[in-house]
UniProtKB/TrEMBL annotation:
InterPro entries: Galactose-bd-like_sf, Ig-like_fold, Ig_E-set. This is IPT/TIG domain-containing protein. Signal peptide: none annotated. PROSITE patterns: PROKAR_LIPOPROTEIN.
Amino acid sequence: MSKPSNLFLLAIITLTLTGILSCEDDDVMQSTETTLISFGPSGVMHGDSVLIIGENLMRVNAVEFAPAERVPESEFLMREDNRFMVIVPPTAETGTIKLHTDDEVIESKTQLNFSVTYSITDVTDEARPGSDITITGNFLNWIESITFSNNLTVEDFVSQTQTEIVVTVPQEASTGRLVFQGGGFEPMTVETEESLVVTLPAVTSVTPQAVRHTEEITITGTDLDLVKEIIFPGDTVVARQDFVSGSDETSLVVHVPATAVDGQITLVAYSDVEVAVEEPITIILPAETSLAPTPVPVGEELTITGTDLDLVGSLVFPGVAEPVTEFVSQSATEIGVIVPEGAISGFMKFITIHGYVVNLATTLELPGEGPLPLVLTIFNDNFQNGWENWGWVQVDAASDEQVFDGSSSLKVLFNSAGGAWEGIQIGNGTPLDVSGYTNLVFYVYGGPGSNDGQVMVKINDSANDPGATISVVEGEWTPYSLAISELNATSGTDNTWNMIILQEFDQLAGDVYIDYVGFQ
């Protein structure tokens, strides 16, 4: 049991209300009626005496304190017709005083209030959200509220007496100290020295650990009914209402989201406290082991062998914008597909039946297809030979959305900064002598909305020179091979290059992809 410190758990709630009641009578001296005139002192403590002043008080046979605590006349300390004293019972609360006679009850118009020292001696150490904890001490009937962690204040208790409070732990509470709020004219707060430990869900196993998208996994453990939601790797959240089952404390079943990736699952309690599951899950994805024949002509059947190929919903061929959804044959270990028109050598992609994209590791080779090899590469899957992005436009240098050769391309979003004349600036800290090359080559693919956009190609810092102009064709890869001699002339430079600029000049919109950049 947690024990609050004496320093914090002894609080005096001083409640100051003067109990003065006046009674007027035109002929009070001749009256035989019992009259309550005043009582005091104000702010009296339990166990102290209260002096009651009035008329004809010998007729009083009991004094009643709130809520219903009677003190018989046999316990009066001093008795006279116009005054007597009585000890305040330990269970008395703020309220009026009632004088009982044989034939009437005289009630004060004002309330008697108290200076109270309440103390807390024990608090339950650990509890589940939704369960009851017990607080013991003295004068606990004066406590009006208890605040749990996360600023959750409870005013309705299961039970409350002078020595004990039973209260339900809120569902959203987390481990932390309790704060007690007393009543009175100047309320005081008391905070426990030790924290109430609030139980969290715990996991013992996840099965299966290797699972396909949308399949079920079973999580076993303890207190799993306290789980509000599950975060899968990839930041997809599954709420409790979407669990297959989860009312049991020891297990819950949930579908793996189609966007989940390999990694750890995280359980989230109703308090928003996160509990990481140690055992990671592995997402089963289609994987190829070989492509045959190689090379394969356009219009001929390509056989892809591998594992879990029944998960493939479509195939993306390099050089072809639209995925191929019709197969000659398909099983878990083999796919037969006709190579479409427009396909070129490069890396293919699987798109699973759940929309997840998987890059193939094996190169598709077509006879007599593909670009001439680069003598010096600037970009092909990544920047090479000291070249890097120096531009002022938004660039993704590892985009796999549209790829001409390899596994990634440069994705450029012109006008991403909100203005015209934006461009990608490819720079090299070590100027390059290009006299040994004849052409700068690259491939450009226009995304939606980019059709017929114009881009200037300029060399070095040639702000006032026109450079060369190319067009962006929407929906297809367009090859460009620009003579170095002409670029030198239009850019006003010589054979020493340290910068290549592709700059739009007519409010080009949409994404533009650039790939296979280098010298021939």
